[in-house]
Design brief:
Helix content: 25-40%
Order of helices and strands: EHEHHEEHEE
Distance between the termini: 39 Å
Radius of gyration: 18 Å
Number of strands: 6
Structural class: alpha/beta
Length: 152
């Protein structure tokens, strides 16, 4: 498994599940992709797919990245016939029908959290798995409501 995400939480989840992975992150310009005024599920799906497509391109012969050839020596599973699965993801927080970007300051973060006690926010996340070299791709989206106590 190649984890194409620098997310602390995603790394922690895989570690706690006992899933071995190699970390290979290549950044994209997320702000220029997707509609932040539209459907949050469509946005995170589009972003997770764009991250996966770009990382796969970097790792394939089309890219100039030698990370994949470096990783070839790390396979240790019996019966491993080749190939890699690349995991990329994206997540947003929504509140009162709006997609919230990452807060740019402590004050903005406090403002977000103070409003969460009044009405519950939701997280919407997407994961995309891409197989190298076949290019087969599967994805999924999930959401969760987070309820804060009024005393927050």
């Amino acid at each position: 498994l190649i984890l194409g995400s620098g997310s602390f939480t995603r790394k922690l989840i895989l570690k706690e599940m006992g899933v071995n992975y190699e970390l290979v992150v290549r950044s994209i310009d997320e702000k220029g992709i997707g509609d932040r005024n539209g459907d949050p599920a469509a946005l995170v799906s589009t972003l997770a797919k764009a991250k996966g497509d770009y990382l796969v391109k970097c790792l394939s012969n089309d890219g100039d990245d030698n990370a994949l050839s470096t990783l070839e020596g790390t396979k240790v599973t019996d019966g491993d016939f080749g190939g890699w699965v690349v995991l990329t993801a994206d997540q947003v927080v929504t509140h009162n029908g709006s997609i919230l970007e990452k807060p740019e300051s402590i004050e903005e973060a406090r403002d977000f959290v103070s409003r969460y006690a009044e009405s519950a926010p939701r997280t919407v996340g997407a994961c995309v798995l891409t197989h190298i070299p076949s290019g087969i791709q599967v994805s999924g989206v999930d959401s969760a409501q987070i309820n804060f106590l009024p005393t927050v």
